[in-house]
Write a structure and sequence with these properties.
Layout (H helix, E strand, L loop, with lengths): L1 E7 L6 H14 L5 E4 L13 E2 L6 H5 L8 H13 L2 H8 L6 E5 L12 H11 L2 E10 H4 L2 H18 L3 E6 L6 H11 L3 H5 L12 H13 L6 E2 L5 H14 L30
Parallel strand pairs: 1-4, 1-5, 2-3, 2-4, 5-6, 6-7
């Protein structure tokens, strides 16, 4: 059995920073995690990657191909579809280790998690390879303080949940960058009362023309308790550990690990019994 986090979220939500934070945190815990870059447009990492999609294909390669003539978004989708056709490359890069733990740093284009089946095919393939997969959807907390933007972000997270059909954890990132006032306001969005948020009396949040539609969408999220968020402050080890523990629990990490045996001394006659004047 192997384990994987599928790290998703809009561009700028902090996916690579999240992976870096988790790698450093796990190093402190003496846990080994492997990072796989699945963003063909990525430019920089401050951590080692076990596999890098850019070694197979990159957005620059696609955009420079005169026969394809793709822009940035079309080129990225093409790269992901090319990955689907070359899963043997990914399987070889991941190896066959037992109890390995991977972070898949995914691209941020929302269409990959809605109407294009690329990420669902990736999940299905990983599960066939005996992976337990958890979706980790990141949203910038600075973006979510506004009620209208919060509803948009919640629906984006819900779209990923419905499409992938795997254990799912939503995380509000960059909590360390919020002002004191914003930190107080963000509390209502972590375990949200959508109706209360929609009933906010301040003008300018929601267009009256679409008020009924907005309320209907909010009711779907609220009635079924579909979306909740965990706060992540990368400067706070307790915050990082809380997020990691929640994800580990979702994929049952550690339950199948073999217990470590205590080393046995070479000469059992020399073992101290622990009591004065006695020898084993």
């Amino acid at each position: 059995m192997r384990y994987a986090q599928l790290v998703m979220g809009p561009a700028g939500s902090g996916k690579s920073t999240y992976c870096s934070t988790m790698v450093k945190h796990c190093e402190a815990l003496r846990r080994v995690v492997h990072v796989v870059n699945l963003d063909p447009a990525a430019e920089y990492f401050d951590y080692p990657v076990t596999a890098d999609l850019r070694e197979l294909i990159s957005v620059d390669d696609v955009m420079e191909d005169d026969s394809l003539r793709f822009g940035p978004n079309g080129g990225l989708v093409f790269c992901m579809e090319y990955l689907i056709q070359n899963f043997d490359w990914l399987e070889e890069e991941l190896g066959q280790g037992e109890d390995d733990y991977f972070l898949f740093d995914c691209p941020g284009q929302i269409e990959l998690y809605t109407h294009i089946p690329v990420m669902r095919q990736l999940v299905d393939t990983l599960q066939r390879w005996d992976f337990r997969v958890c979706g980790v959807f990141l949203i910038d907390s600075q973006f979510m303080v506004d009620p209208s933007k919060f509803l948009s972000g919640a629906l984006s997270a819900l779209s990923g949940m419905v499409t992938l059909e795997i254990p799912h954890v939503n995380v509000m990132t960059k909590m360390d960058l919020l002002s004191k006032k914003a930190k107080k306001e963000i509390e209502r969005y972590l375990d949200p009362d959508i109706r209360g948020i929609l009933a906010d009396g301040r003008e300018g949040y929601f267009d009256h023309k679409f008020q009924k539609l907005t309320q209907a969408l909010g009711s779907v999220v609220d009635d079924y308790s579909l979306v909740q968020f965990l706060p992540l402050n990368r400067q706070d080890e307790d915050s990082v550990d809380a997020v990691l523990s929640t994800i580990d629990s979702a994929i049952q990490y550690g339950e199948d690990l073999e217990p470590r045996e205590m080393p046995v001394p070479d000469d059992e006659d020399d073992v101290d019994s622990g009591f004065p004047g006695e020898e084993s």
